[in-house]
Design goal:
binds guanosine-5',3'-tetraphosphate; eight-stranded antiparallel β-sheet; Alpha-Beta Plaits; globular; 14 helices; 27% strand; alpha+beta; Rossmann fold; 29 strands
């Protein structure tokens, strides 16, 4: 096929973690290896500091950083790596979930001291929904963390995933001496603050070698021999296909801040991680090496300058070849659009690009044509699926404080929710508007941006709903249910019916009373069903 060479050399992935596990640090070290940045400290943390939840400058700063680092592309060992950034703050988790629809694999960072944390669990659930292959990087081995076998147990149980260690640590904390690479049978000795170019690798053809005792001391050498014997007995060789099928997750140990274990991770990653994969649509499965172009929008960023309403829409190329100035078909709007200034994210040359291939992410200047999930093709009518909306966790009624600005408010809330900042539900047969979010911070962002960018001032009235459930089933039964439950029935932006349940008890009761109706926690029903 025409584009096989381009496809084979690309890897598109995201690093995910619970905040503070070391995602930013690891990202930075990978960029250093890729030559995309020259000095440590160049990647700004995209975390919103805990105390700054109502500091709007912080939100603006965050938006600035997240535009700049949304996608980081760089070359390493003849491989073109597209690293997609995900927000650090849990209130923006939905943004992370959407970004995960655009990657082919992930690296999950776990803090060896804290083990599996709340966000780690949620992120893994999303990976599992999509069968995304995962490599685990256990970070902060320079600190006294959990005993590696216990940690492996915890990760396997808590995340319900089979692990396969590819490296194994020799002690930890102050006693940390390095890792033994089970994949290529070499010993990597630890020195703090190791430079990216420094190589402290010692090839060990057999663990019985005396060299091992010389390097790490007799006691630790014997412990390593014991550990490795056990590990090799249990795990054997890595089944790469099982990893690509998301059945097994390889594990590396290291210390990102000390640049330790990062190179092994990267070298193995480019070797085993899947190349750009095909994607499902409502009509058929699209393979990356098809001649014709297709892609979808997974993220939209508003312009930071409020005087300009244009936005950047992030397109993941799924098949064929994207070209500048060529007309592509916007399947939802049924119209052809071309892009004269598509934007690339190659770290050295953030600039206009002429072509892009499957796995690449292109930034498109948008004047309001796109919403998340939109599909572009060379004329074929299809829509990429698997970009679901999840039930929000917080619900508030949107109240317009300035009736003279109703139009601005309507437009603003429509555009902000197209961007995916929050979800908008409108009362079925009415005009009441309810905003659903994952975290409080999103409400603050909406209020602030409606005022700053649209001149509309709003207030929010908290509502005590438990979940939004998309409902499907027999039409007559649905009609009856809608009539009966009128005040709890909303429509999402696409006009789908949504039932807002007051509590888990209410939801269960409705389920029992309405066996012919299905209640779903996501807008796409095949991928995950409620409870
Ligand atoms: P995040 O993006 O996942 O939220 O985490 P981030 O990389 O910002 O790292 C969180 C903290 O953990 C940072 O410290 C960072 O320096 C530290 N860290 C990262 N990797 C390691 C490691 O291998 N060992 C140890 N001991 N610490 C590590 P901070 O104090 O919050 O920030 P900073 O002032 O050091 O930047």
């Amino acid at each position: 096929m025409k584009y096989d060479i381009e496809i084979s050399r690309r890897r598109t992935f995201a690093i995910i973690s619970h905040p503070d596990a070391g995602k930013t640090t690891l990202t930075e070290k990978l960029l250093l290896f890729g030559g995309a940045i020259q000095v440590a400290g160049a990647v700004k943390s995209n975390k919103i500091k805990k105390h700054a939840t109502s500091d709007f400058m912080e939100i603006e700063r965050q938006r600035g950083i997240s535009v700049a680092t949304s996608v980081m592309s760089f070359e390493y060992a003849d491989t073109l790596i597209n690293l997609l950034d995900t927000p650090g703050h849990k209130d923006f988790a939905e943004d992370t979930y959407r970004t995960l629809t655009a990657v082919d694999s992930v690296i999950l960072v776990i803090d060896s001291v804290n083990g599996v944390e709340e966000q780690t669990r949620k992120l893994m659930e999303v990976c599992r929904m999509r069968d995304t292959p995962v490599i685990v990087f256990v970070n902060k081995l320079d600190r006294d963390g959990k005993y590696p076998f216990d940690l492996m147990d915890e990760i396997e149980k808590e995340l319900n995933i089979s692990l396969h260690p590819l490296s194994w640590p020799i002690n930890m904390g102050k006693e940390f001496k390095g890792v033994y690479n089970l994949f290529n049978k070499s010993l990597n000795l630890f020195t703090a603050n190791q430079k990216a170019t420094e190589d402290n690798t010692v090839p060990i053809s057999s663990l019985t070698e005396k060299l091992l005792d010389e390097k790490v001391g007799e006691r630790d050498a014997n412990q390593l021999r014991e550990d490795v014997e056990l590990l090799e007995g249990v795990y054997g060789d890595l089944d790469v296909e099982a990893y690509r099928a998301a059945l097994v997750a390889p594990v590396f140990f290291g210390s990102a801040v000390n640049n330790f274990g990062v190179k092994e991770l990267l070298d193995t990653f480019i070797h085993i991680a899947p190349k750009p994969l095909g994607r499902a649509t409502d009509k058929r499965f699209v393979e990356p090496n098809e001649d014709k172009f297709s892609g979808f929008i997974f993220k939209i960023h508003a312009n930071l300058d409020p005087r300009h309403r244009d936005r950047i829409a992030f397109l993941r190329v799924c098949s064929g070849r994207f070209e500048r100035n060529k007309y592509f078909y916007h399947t939802r709007l049924d119209k052809d659009i071309r892009f004269s200034n598509p934007y690339s994210f190659l770290a050295r040359e953030k600039d206009v690009i002429d072509v892009a291939f499957p796995g690449d992410v292109v930034g498109l200047f948008d004047t309001g044509n796109f919403k998340i999930g939109d599909t572009l093709t060379e004329g074929e009518v299809l829509q990429f699926t698997g970009i679901p909306t999840f039930s929000p966790e917080l619900f508030k009624e949107l109240v317009n404080k300035d009736p003279l600005k109703t139009k601005q408010m309507e437009k603003g809330i429509r555009q902000l929710t197209d961007e995916g900042v929050a979800q908008l539900f409108t009362q079925h047969g009415g005009n009441r508007k309810i905003i659903g979010c994952v975290g409080e911070l999103q409400f603050e962002v909406i209020q602030y941006r409606l005022l700053q960018e649209y001149g509309a001032s709003c207030a929010f009235v908290p509502l005590s709903f438990y979940k939004a459930c998309w409902i499907t089933g027999d039409k007559k039964k649905i009609d009856d249910f809608v009539r009966f439950k009128q005040s709890n029935i909303m429509e999402d932006k696409d006009g789908n019916l949504v039932y807002l349940a007051q509590s888990e008890w209410f939801l269960n009761t409705e389920r029992q009373n309405n066996p012919d109706i299905e209640f779903h926690f996501t807008s796409e029903f095949k991928t995950a069903q409620a409870g």
